Amino acid sequence: MNQNKNIEDIYPLSPMQQGILFHTLLSPNSGEYIPQVCLTLTGLLNIEQFKQAWEYVIARHQSLRASFHWERREQPFQVIYRQVNLPWQQQDWRNLSPDEQQDLLKNLLKTDSQQTFNLKKPPLIRLNLIQLTDQTYKLIWTQHHLILDGWSAGLVIKEVLDVYQALSVGKQFSLPKIRPYGEYIAWLYKQDLSTAQQFWKEQLKWFTTPTSLRIEKNLNSISHENQPEEQQVKLSQTTTSTLQSFAQKNQLTINTIIQGAFAILLSRYSGEQDILFGATSSGRPVGLTGVESMVGLFINTLPVRIKVPGQAVLISWLKELQNQQSEALQYEYTSLLEIQKLSDIPAGLPLF
Fold it and tell me: The pTM is what?
């Protein structure tokens, strides 16, 4: 197909896409924005029908056919292609022992996460299906965060499995009609920025120094080999139930409690009472019909400014924080770069 005829649409980036593109270009080898999903599939699998299911879902969603461009334009933009090739790999490890399979899988996941994407060549995903036994498979789905958030990734997986299920039993299938990601971008650029700018300017008024953990960060040194260590902590069922009960009793969300605890922690580490950190919002506007089933990058990172007093009634303080969160969500469409320009923090320093 002719390159121009294969173009379906062209539109700007969302605020979060702008930020991720900036950091990707600043540190292209970090792998920070290349998440992986590793699924275990059991039972008889018709591989051709499974591939067809992926092709159907990719054709259904604009974001899965997007490329990104930033040269010779004042603002970066994304190009949506009508058709793209499915980036598919397939391997058969049935002759290997379980231990050998585990070692190979571990190495493959690491190698795959270090493989960058050409942002100008869609789709920004790749699939690798590995057969472990006659009825056991591993699917590695790697994507660039520019095109998807966690909510959207879950929608894609569900749709692929629904389509495959229908194909495998010879049923007609018809997924619900969805709105293209471009309609969200159009909505985004119609919002009243002046009101949002005034809100964030007031929120950050007189905050001049980023909250510091006294940890130096050199962006130029970030690579796959020296990524920060991650530690996952699973709360016990008792602790989780206690948190849920406390939240329900005091009409608080778990998110509010976690943010409050994090603010207290930052206050103690930094020695400051006026704290600023970033928090992720879903970015899916309630007023946009059908947004819950749209696939793309909607999340945004917003500044959360909290004053941690030496003496305060905990419940009242948390409720004040929750009210602040609700108000901020009205303006969650604002670009973090734009918010930073409105702050009193000197140019060249990060917000958090």
Answer: 0.85
